[in-house]
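Bumping with the actual sequence this time:
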Amino acid sequence: MSVASENHPKAAVEEIKKAQTVKTANKGMSVGNRDRLISLASPIVLLFVWEIAARTGMIDARFFPAPSSIFETLLALIRDGSLWANTWATLQRLFWGLLLGGIPGLLLGIAMGLNRPLRAMIDPLISTTYPIPKSAIFPLILLVCGLGESSKIVMVAIGVFYPVLINSTTGVLEINKIYLDVGRNFGATRWQTFRTIAFPGAVPHIMSGIKLGIGLGLMLIAIAEMIGAKSGLGYMIWNAWEILSVETMYVGLIIIALLGFIFSLILNEVERKLVPWKKSR
C-alpha cells in the first residue's frame, strides 16, 4: 500500500477494491464450469488428433478412417433413418434392463446392509456368481428366454444388478452406526429406517453403482444385439463388419460412447442435486 493511501483512508479502500477485482478476475470460472469445459474439450481434441493422423498417413485409414469420413457416414445413416431406429431399439432394451436389474439390486442391497443374517446368507451367492462373465451366460439366457426382446433385457438386467447391489450394500454399511441407533431409540420402523436413514446415507454409493451398471449395460446390450437381434447398435456394428463397412462400425461405436458420456453427465447432475453435501474434489 502506498504512502498516499496510508494518509487517505478512501484511497486505501479503493486500492483494496481493485485488488479484490484483480483476484476475482484471476480466479476465472468456477471449478464446476472448468470441469465441464474440460469434459467437453477432451473428446474434441482426441478427434482432431485422429483426423490429422489419418490424413497424414500416421495410421492406416483402412482400419482407422478419418473422423470426417465417419461423420459423412453418420449423416447418411441419419438421413435414411437406420441410425435412429437402431439407437432407439438399444435405448429401449437398456431402459427396461436398468429397471429390471437396478430396482431389485437397490432394494436387496439396502436390505443386506441393514440385516446381518440376510447379508450372511446372500453374500456368498453374490461372491461366487459375480465373477462369471455375463457374456458367457448369454447362450443360457437364449435357451431360457428365446431370441426375442426378453433375452436382451435380461442380459442387461443381470449386468446392472450386481454393481447396484454391491454399492448399495457398501453404502449402508458405511453409515455411521450412531444414526441407526438413534432411529431405533426413537422407535423407527424398518420402513422409516430404510427411507430416512439407510437410503439417504447410501445415495453416493448407489449413484456410483448406477453409473457402473449403465456402463456395463451398454457393453452387454451391444454383445447381445450382435448375437441375437435384428436391430440395435450392436446389430448395426456386427452387420457392418460382415459387409466390411468400417465407417459404419465406427459410427455404432461412437454412438455407444456418446450415450455413455451423456448418461454420465446426467447422473453427475442428478448426484449434485441428491447429494449436495458431497464435496467436489
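The C-alpha cells above came from a reply further down the thread. Residues 1-7 have pLDDT under 50 and may be disordered.
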